[in-house]
Amino acid sequence: MKSGVRTIIGLTMVLMLLGFTGCGDKKESGGKKELVILATDSMENLLEEFIVEYNKQSEEYYITYEDFGWMPGGPEVLSDKINAKIVSEHCPDVVLINYNLYQVYMDAEALEDLTPYVENSKSIATEAFKEPVIKALEKNNALYGIPRNFSITGMAGRTDQVGELQGWNIDEFITYFEQNPDVVLEWDGDDYGILNFCLRYGLENYVDFEEGKCYFDTEKFKTLLTRIKALNREDSHVDNFREHVEDGGKFLLDLSVNSFDEYKRMEAEYQDSFTILGYPGSVGNANCRLLPENAIGMFANSKNKKAAGDEIEKYMEFDFGFEEYSFSAIEKTFKEQLTLAKEEQQVTEHNITTKMEALTYEQELQILRAIENAVPDNTVWEDIRYMVLDEALHYYLDKKSLEETTDIIQKRVQLYLEEAAL
């Protein structure tokens, strides 16, 4: 999100001005009190069955659902609409939102700490979750969301093409393109895209977050910009990526992996083994992106917190069928998924049954290593990354000089760091 700090500050001010003292009474139906779920991810079909089941069983509450899925205008418009909703007379109680928005509302202290609810729960325990996934929804020892599943993304290449690489730092990443000018990316393969990949987890090369200082006017960063521009990547796109691959051309994928089966299908499709390299960082790890999914939380100004806590527990107990298609955030279920993936399976889709090969030891190592090195998004990092990309584009389009570009980047990011520290 390009304006994460402004969004956080804006939301915080609205909540302070309105007292953030809670919402008005909810509607009642048939003697039951209303609980409202607000969701920004497309879960309508999945939630419907859960809501029907909950409403049948609960004698005191019934759930209604408000869809805040995709809308024109992007994240900023979405945030504005959610902000207005949670300070309205009838704010929602429970929330299902994507991870980047979770960060915004955690920072704005608009979400309830779920730690007491988890401690008193019969079926939810934080130690039962994969640690990096549950940690992604914690801040200052407080837990603001409970995830059901997760996925990872990262760059991957054919093992026979990337050689001994198991991950890379920024220098190794750029060197690979310099030494392999014919390598093609399916998406984002121009100079702007290459810089974007470098900045996702490589900002520590240019920002001291502890000191609140940045170094984008140094030779180190200038060299990065000029090396990327010299790659002349804007001319490297191919019209038919699939044909390029089938002809044996060199390529890299920006790969999204949601499950063991998906990775098996990918290698079967390309009829080759892959190495997950992740995104380049300050060190040579396979830095993949970790995305907690289908997480549930509670708004801090819900007036039905006890009932909302019960709803969250039932949500975590409900069988949505997620585990069939994505990595489970629950450690026990994740291990069961891995065990099943290592067995040969018969898969039926559209009335056609095919055989899915067992997960190999090499595939298992690739996936587990990538998950181990996966890192969740960070709103501060994301804001800085987009600032740098916005200004660097002028340099790559020859609208500003290198010195002008780096000077503006330095000033913008330094000001941002100072404002964020306030």
Care to describe what's here?
The protein has 422 residues and is α+β, with helices and mostly antiparallel strands. The chain has two domains: 4-150 and 291-324, D-Maltodextrin-Binding Protein, domain 2 (3-Layer(aba) Sandwich), CATH 3.40.190; 151-289 and 377-420, 3-Layer(aba) Sandwich (D-Maltodextrin-Binding Protein, domain 2), CATH 3.40.190. It is built from 17 helices and 18 strands. The protein has helices at residues 4-17, 44-57, 74-86, 99-107, 115-119, 131-135, 159-162, 170-179, 191-200, 219-230, 241-246, 260-270, 305-317, 331-341, 361-372, 379-396, 402-420, and strands spanning 28-29, 32-39, 61-67, 94-96, 138-139, 142-143, 149-158, 184-185, 207-208, 213-214, 251-257, 274-276, 289-293, 297-298, 327-328, 345-349, 352-356, 375-376. The strands form five sheets. Strands 7, 8, 11, 12, 13, 15 and 18 form a seven-stranded mixed beta sheet that branches. Strands 1, 2, 3, 4 and 14 form a five-stranded mixed beta sheet that branches. A two-stranded antiparallel sheet has the order 5-6. Helix 16 runs antiparallel to helix 17 (402-420). The chain is globular, with a radius of gyration of 23 Å. Mean pLDDT is 86; it is low at 5-10 and 12-25.
